[in-house]
Design brief:
Blueprint: E1 4-7, H1 9-17, H2 22-34, E2 38-42, H3 43-49, E3 65-67, H4 75-82, H5 86-103, E4 109-111, H6 115-123, E5 130-131, H7 133-143, E6 154-159, H8 171-176, H9 181-187, E7 192-197, E8 203-212, E9 221-222, E10 230-238, H10 245-259, E11 264-269, H11 274-285, E12 289-294, E13 299-304, H12 313-316, E14 320-321, E15 326-331, H13 333-339, E16 350-352, E17 360-366, E18 377-382, E19 391-403, H14 408-415, H15 423-432, E20 437-447, H16 455-460, E21 473-476, H17 478-485, H18 489-494, E22 495-496
Helix pairs in contact: 2-7, 5-6, 14-15
């Protein structure tokens, strides 16, 4: 049966009222057509929409099918509503009704930008079936590379002045910062920026950074920022592409912060439309917190770069607790290139297929009794082949662990958001392991491709090379871990004693 995609009420309203979601909805619908998927609305969304949208605008929904029968709320959702006051109940009922449709198998997935809907889905252990538009597009791009017309995207570092302000990408900047944006652009024309373009030379994303020293003037920010060495995110915008460019930009931001040894990263942003709220949500997920206001109305968000770790690894990424459990995982040559980028941005200013350089990734292991949990350190061991040196080529932090799947569909749905493998490859893995699999989400934070940690170093600390079998976790002692990473940038910059 073809996939059934239920659209969130928020997306439909935003699309019809002010077209904030027009680009994202367009890309989602293109993918739905390519995959012959059903595009669904529920009758509750239609009812809410008619209160805000003129009747003639509803013709824009002609490609959608409507779920007209709304089943009664399941007990778990009734209980959640009973704990809310009248106003909260009114706001959340529509969200829970859509999750309820997923539980009743009236739709396969829900696509929504509503942050509360995603929170509720996590509470109900349904987050594997609830996607943002970015997540849905990214999943389609990975699972159906042959149908992806965005795979020609290239991310590279260029001079700001080589870009054309006539590109539609800059319209929001020109509108929000008028009339000063043209003059500011000319002044900054020689500055370097990271830009992603598609095969038609259209800009899909842009990142501009600025290093600020202790004497920087912060008098326009309230409360006043104390003197510090900071990296400012001067410009950050990402259109929908399916290439995880936003996460790729976060990697660049953190690596530049490490390179310049800054105390903090900060950004000022207008919280006045949905794309900006998407940006704020993204940076908050990576540890940015609200500081205050800038004169003119922008919000200020700050992220510390002091070496420390927190219970939720993403909030203190890229730092690794030096006292955590450590595991070595073996990966084959072909898969290692998908899993671990060969270079960091410190050496690389040109990037094909940015999704390969996303931070949060996934690996599948054979289910076992080894206690690998969030916060644990992973070292990735590459088996030698084709003249490549065997050794440890990268490191990561365990972000989440899933196992004991009831069936293959549960496994496929859990993998869908983060894997670089096709559905056929996932099916083969499920069959090969007879359903006894463990899914590890991890944050990739270091690469050793230029100088892999060698077999001789592993032998020196007493690690049995024969136990480095594919798709298994090999626990090692903390003193072995510290010896292996001694003298690396990973030890110096990222490991917290």
């Amino acid at each position: 049966m073809n996939q059934r995609i239920l659209f969130g009420t928020d997306i439909i309203l935003g699309y019809l009222l002010n077209e904030e979601y027009a680009d994202g909805v367009s890309v989602v619908q293109q993918w739905a057509k390519r995959l012959n998927a059903q595009q669904l609305l529920d009758v509750g969304t239609i009812s809410i929409t008619t209160h805000f949208v003129k009747t003639n605008r509803l013709s824009a929904l002609k490609g959608f099918e409507v779920i007209r029968e709304m089943p009664p709320l399941l007990a778990i959702f009734k209980m959640m509503l009973s704990q809310k006051d009248l106003w909260q109940e009114r706001d959340e009922r529509a969200l829970l009704m859509q999750l309820n449709l997923i539980k009743y198998n009236k739709a396969d997935i829900l696509v929504t930008e509503n942050l509360r809907a995603h929170e509720l889905s996590r509470i109900c252990s349904m987050d594997d079936k609830v996607f943002t538009m970015d997540e849905f597009i990214e999943t389609c791009s990975i699972e159906h590379r042959d149908k992806d017309d965005s795979k020609g995207i290239i991310l590279k570092e260029v001079s700001f002045g080589t870009l054309s302000l006539d590109d539609n990408f800059f319209n929001t900047f020109k509108r929000e910062y008028a009339p000063y944006y043209y003059e500011w652009f000319k002044k900054k024309k020689d500055d370097l920026v990271y830009v992603a373009k598609d095969e038609n030379d259209k800009i899909k994303a842009l990142l501009k950074l600025k290093l600020e020293l202790e004497d920087e003037d912060y008098s326009t920010i309230i409360p006043l920022l104390p003197p510090a060495r900071r990296l400012k995110i001067s410009s950050l915008k990402v259109d929908y592409s399916g290439q995880k460019i936003g996460e790729r930009f976060m990697r660049i931001i953190f690596e530049q912060a490490l390179k310049h040894k800054v105390d903090e990263i900060y950004v000022t942003v207008y919280a006045n439309n949905t794309p900006r709220l998407r940006l704020i949500d993204m940076i908050k997920r990576w540890g940015f917190s609200y500081w205050g206001k800038k004169k003119g109305g922008e919000d200020v968000y700050i992220r510390t770069m002091k070496k420390k770790t927190l219970p939720l690894p993403r909030l203190s990424y890229p730092f690794q607790d030096g006292k955590s459990n450590v595991f070595i995982i073996t990966v084959g040559k072909g898969y290692s290139k998908l899993l671990i980028p060969s270079k960091s941005v410190r050496e690389n200013s040109f990037d094909m297929e940015p999704f390969r350089n996303a931070i949060r990734k996934m690996i599948i292991l054979k289910e076992d009794n080894i206690d690998i949990k969030p916060g644990s350190a992973i070292l990735f061991f590459r088996k030698g082949s084709g003249g490549e040196e065997e050794g440890i080529i990268g490191a990561g932090i365990v972000d989440d662990v899933f196992q004991s799947f009831n069936n293959e569909e549960e496994f496929l749905v859990r993998c869908r958001k983060r894997t670089s493998l096709s559905s056929d490859a996932l099916h083969s893995r499920w069959e090969r392991e007879e359903g006894k699999v463990k899914v590890i989400y991890f944050l990739h934070n270091a690469s050793f491709y230029m100088k892999p940690i060698s077999i001789s170093s592993l032998l020196m600390v007493g690690i049995d090379i024969m136990k480095l079998r594919s798709s298994r976790c090999l626990p090692i002692e903390n003193n072995q871990f510290r010896y292996l990473i001694k003298g690396t940038e990973y030890e110096e910059d990222l490991v917290v004693d």
